[in-house]
Amino acid sequence: MEFKKGGIKGVVIRPLKKHVDERGWLSELFRSDDLPEKALMPVMSYVSVTNPGITRGPHEHVEQTDYFCFFGPSNFKLCLWDARPGSETYGCRQVVFAGVDNPCAAVVPPGVVHAYKNIGAKDGVVLNFPNRLFMGEAKRSAVDEIRHEDAVNSPYRVDE
Fold first, then answer.
1. 3-class state of residue 15 by DSSP
2. Three-state SS for 51?
3. Residue 116: is its pLDDT beyond 90?
4. Closest CA to 115 of 149, 83, 91
5. pLDDT tens column, 25-58
């Protein structure tokens, strides 16, 4: 499949505003009144550190919406592909540069394949506030993830 450049319906990219004073800075990462739909309300959170040059993904979720926050201390290339056949933006690829130079939150709905690569020289921190529990209640369910990392001839390539 060939993807065309463009925005993806349901993906929300929101700048993260830094409030700076003599002590340092503060940024509101999540506010329930900023979400486009209450169904996206996070139910858990996690933080990950990605080493320079490393890519996480590409993968997609069947039901889960991710709410990523990129704020540094490195920069990331976030790639999104609309693989939802019924979507009006099906076949679109959206790229966002996020992190220390462009702090932002990214809402990624189910069926949107996503990957991010640390393109900086430092370890990069990413927070996620998904709307589904990893492996469900008490971790008794299957993981809601379709992985494309090792697919031969995958159309989901970050380094393009």
1. strand
2. coil
3. yes
4. 149
5. 899 888 888 776 666 788 999 999 999 999 999 9
